[in-house]
Amino acid sequence: MPQLTPFYFFNEVTFAFVILLITIYMLSKYVLPRFVRLFLARTFISKLFN
């Protein structure tokens, strides 16, 4: 089991950190702004008809 060998700790931590950074960047750049725009559009539309 390579995850228990201390030699592989640095590789696994580095890979996990890089994947985490890429995931956070993709969420903050592309996914979350789309949800914010959708929420704002729905809020403005609901205020328009009230």
From TrEMBL:
Gene Ontology CC terms: mitochondrial inner membrane; proton-transporting ATP synthase complex
Cell compartment(s), UniProt: Mitochondrion inner membrane; Mitochondrion membrane
Chain coiled-coil ranges: none
InterPro entries from the UniProt entry: ATP_synth_su8_fun
Keywords: ATP synthesis, CF(0), Hydrogen ion transport, Ion transport, Membrane, Mitochondrion, Transmembrane, Transmembrane helix, Transport
Transmembrane segments: 6-27
Membrane topology label: Single-pass membrane protein
Superkingdom of the organism of origin: Eukaryota
GO molecular function: proton-transporting ATP synthase activity, rotational mechanism
Signal peptide: none
Entries under Pfam families matching the protein: Fun_ATP-synt_8 (PF05933)
Main location class: mitochondrion
PANTHER family assigned to the protein according to its UniProt record, in alphabetical order: ATP SYNTHASE PROTEIN 8 (PTHR36101:SF1)
The protein's assembly and partners: F-type ATPases have 2 components, CF(1) - the catalytic core - and CF(0) - the membrane proton channel.
Role: Mitochondrial membrane ATP synthase (F(1)F(0) ATP synthase or Complex V) produces ATP from ADP in the presence of a proton gradient across the membrane which is generated by electron transport complexes of the respiratory chain. F-type ATPases consist of two structural domains, F(1) - containing the extramembraneous catalytic core and F(0) - containing the membrane proton channel, linked together by a central stalk and a peripheral stalk. During catalysis, ATP synthesis in the catalytic domain of F(1) is coupled via a rotary mechanism of the central stalk subunits to proton translocation.
Family assignment from sequence similarity: Belongs to the ATPase protein 8 family.
The protein, known as: ATP synthase protein 8
Organism: Annulohypoxylon stygium
Gene: atp8
